[in-house]
Amino acid sequence: MGKTARQDAPRRGVTAITAKSAVQAAIGYFHEVTGIDTRDVTVEEIELDDEAGRQYWMVTLGHPEPTAMGMIIPPGPKRLYKTFRVNATTGDVLSMKIREV
To answer: Among residues 13, 16, 33, 77, which one has the fewest Cβ atoms lying within 10 Å of its Cβ?
Structure first.
């Protein structure tokens, strides 16, 4: 038997920020913590974590691997990925982890 619309929707009062706001929080946090320019940061994945009762947005960002001098060397630098856990109620970034691909 399938889920009803009520079962599939976020619990009342839990999700207060949008996916877009969660991405903006993750990008801001990434820049603040690493100092890396965010112009080349890309959004790779975003989901509302069902296993945690939809309390967290999981946001994965990609960015070019910086060189020793902080410069990006063409052609096409290797991309690195980070996953951020963002509180779906407050928008606070709770963690940043390396995402292996």
So the answer is: 13
CATH of 15-98, one of 3.10.450, 1.25.10, 3.90.580, 3.40.50: 3.10.450
The conformation of residue 30, written as its DSSP 8-state character, comes to H
What b/e sequence results for 19-51 when a residue is b if at least 16 CB atoms lie within 10 Å of its CB, and e otherwise? beebbebbbebbeeeeeeeeeebeebebebeee
Mean pLDDT along residues 74-87: 86
In the predicted model, is pLDDT for residue 5 greater than 90? no
DSSP 8-class letter at 86: E
